Amino acid sequence: MTLNDSGLTPIYEKIQAGQRLNLEDGERLFACPNPVLLGQLAHVQRTRLHGLHTTYVLNQQINYTNICVNHCRFCSYHRQKGQDKSFEFSLQDIETKITAQIQEPLTEIHVVGGCHPDLPLSYYEDMLKTMKKLRPEAILKCFTPVEIEHFSRLEDISTGRVLNRLKACGLEMMPGGGAEIFDPPTREKICPQKISGQRWLDIAAQAHELGIKTNCTMLFGHLETRRHRLEHLDQLRRLQDRTKGFLCFIPLPFQTRNNKLQGVTPLSGLEELKTIAVSRLMLDNIPHVKSYWVMLGLKQAQTALYFGADDLDGTVVEEKIGHMAGADSPQVLSRTELERMIIDCGLQPVERNAFFEPVNELRQAAATPDALHREV
Ligand code: SF4
């Protein structure tokens, strides 16, 4: 099938002209019977933005507790306090985990957890200070808007105040989890106790206004429709028009095991790839799209690099949320494995930090400040 046969020529022309695609364009892209053609369109956009560069990060994930008051129906990770397999890390546990990786040249620590019923804000402040003391060179990317709202309710202070206090203790960036799907009726079915989609967007905007960059996500492949996915993408890009605070979009395919939404048929691999490609094409103002190997699996993550994604996330070290939902990817990848995955795709690996800055260039600039001054 050629582009002309597919009926996508007008959309291709819009992409070439740098024009925004509307929701109807998105529906036409989803309906294209040739997913390879769709992948090619997304790859045009990806290479226009990033060439063949494909980024990865040396990072460590810390999931500090799975005790959570929200009981999202799609979630396989959460437990009640005292329930079998529930856990919460003490500050000493976190120190031990960071210290265990201290020889690795990590540039990012990624922290997310459940909404614990009684850990005070001072616990999170001390956690940030501990990590910064042990790993001053690593960027602390911690807590989703869902956690920020939870801290504010427990502490009975505004989310702005929570963000300011955490920032003062070393918070530099926030991950993009908790967005799930913004459509209110679907959200009510999959996570009725979680903050609304609008509240998620408001807190992301607050973070951006305070100079805290964030990522953003979409959980797909549960009860939502393709239209809901497109509307979700549109809401993200409208906020991005305002704040420019999102660095990366992470499409997360729903993991179907061990949760209360059992019975949902897993999406086909092709529908996953189509969703990633459509996301790249719709999100014309968010620089990066991640192929998150933990959720996609290693082979699908490589394929996604030809469907619009330009980042492979990182070494991770220990991930619990996706794996408790049945993700069968490994727990950790080495730098060599990540680079090999990218090179095997004919793409060019580039190590980045949490802000998507190329690490080698930063190191060179730090090693030769005079050269930098001369260029300036
Ligand atoms: S998805 Fe997050 S907020 Fe929802 S139950 Fe699981 S840990 Fe809690």
**Cofactors and ligands present?**
iron/sulfur cluster
- Major sheet: arrangement of strands: 5-6-7-8
Please tell me what the overall shape is. Answer: globular
**Cα gyration radius (Å):** 20 Å
Q: Which second-level CATH architecture applies? A: Alpha-Beta Barrel
Instruction: Count all strands and give the number.
Output: 10
Total domain units? 1
Given the structure, what is the number of helices?
18
In CATH terms, the superfamily is Aldolase class I
Here the CATH topology equals: TIM Barrel
Can I get a quick summary?
This protein has 376 residues and is of the alpha/beta class. It contains 18 helices and ten strands.
Q: Could you describe the 3D structure shown?
A:
By secondary structure, the chain is an alpha/beta fold. The chain has a single domain, classed as TIM Barrel, CATH 3.20.20.70. 46% of the residues lie in helices and 12% in strands. It has 18 helices and ten strands. It has a four-stranded parallel β-sheet with strand order 5-6-7-8. A three-stranded parallel β-sheet has the order 9-1-10, covered by helices on one side. A three-stranded parallel β-sheet has the order 2-3-4, covered by helices on one side. β7 (246-253), α12 and β8 form a beta-alpha-beta unit. α7 (145-155) crosses α10 and α11 (226-243) packs parallel to α12. The longest helix is centred in the middle third of the chain and has 18 residues, at 226-243. The model has no long low-confidence stretch (mean pLDDT 93). It binds iron/sulfur cluster. The site of iron/sulfur cluster has 12 residues, from loops.
